[in-house]
């Protein structure tokens, strides 16, 4: 994901009421859980409130498997977000997915232990300590911004099943004609 181009908040902006990025209801616990991967929670909240991405560290809370957009579109047999998004929700049993880089990449959030057994170079599992650009939990539609929740998190720690991600990866490889 891209580096943040937003200005840093002043200390006065960081002090004060909660800077939740308009999360409420079921989204608020998800936001709070994600923030446990932030090195600076207030900075992350501020970046989300400004409508941007915040960078969270893969590791003890979650990691992500980067799926190339072409592979995902081949699996879904569509290039339209309105068709790909529900396909991913079904294929990954509602597990959370972030679309990024103009949908050149999709990031399936998985348990951190996935990195110990994931051995597929066509879909990289991000290593512990890797920074992942994460949009506000309220950004759930494709648009001009860089990154959105293709499949929003259903609750804290509710991640994609690694086997479901692998099935999706294999299906994309088969449908693209590259079964290596």
Give the SSE layout.
Elements: H1 11-14, H2 27-35, H3 41-49, E1 54-57, E2 63-68, H4 69-76, H5 81-91, E3 97-100, E4 105-110, H6 114-117, E5 131-134, E6 148-151, H7 162-176
Antiparallel strand pairs: 1-5, 2-4, 3-4, 3-6
Helix pairs in contact: 4-7
Kindly name the structural category. alpha+beta
Q: State the shape.
A: globular
N/C terminus separation: 27 Å
User: From the alpha-carbon coordinates, what is the Rg to the nearest angstrom?
Assistant: 16 Å
Average pLDDT figure: 88
Strand fraction: 15-25%
Q: Let me know the largest β-sheet.
A: 4 strands, antiparallel
Order of helices and strands: HHHEEHHEEHEEH
Low-pLDDT stretches are: 1-19
Helicity level: 25-40%
Determine the number of helices (DSSP H or I, runs of at least 4 residues): 7
In total, the number of strands is 6
In the sheet with the most strands, the strands line up as 2-4-3-6
Q: If you had to describe this structure to a student in words, what would you say it looks like?
A:
A hairpin with a 4-residue loop joins strand 3 and strand 4. The chain is globular and about 45 Å long. The protein starts with 10 loop residues before the first helix and ends with a helix. Strands 2-4-3-6 form a 4-stranded antiparallel sheet. A two-stranded antiparallel sheet has the order 1-5. The N terminus is likely disordered. By secondary structure, the protein is an alpha+beta fold.
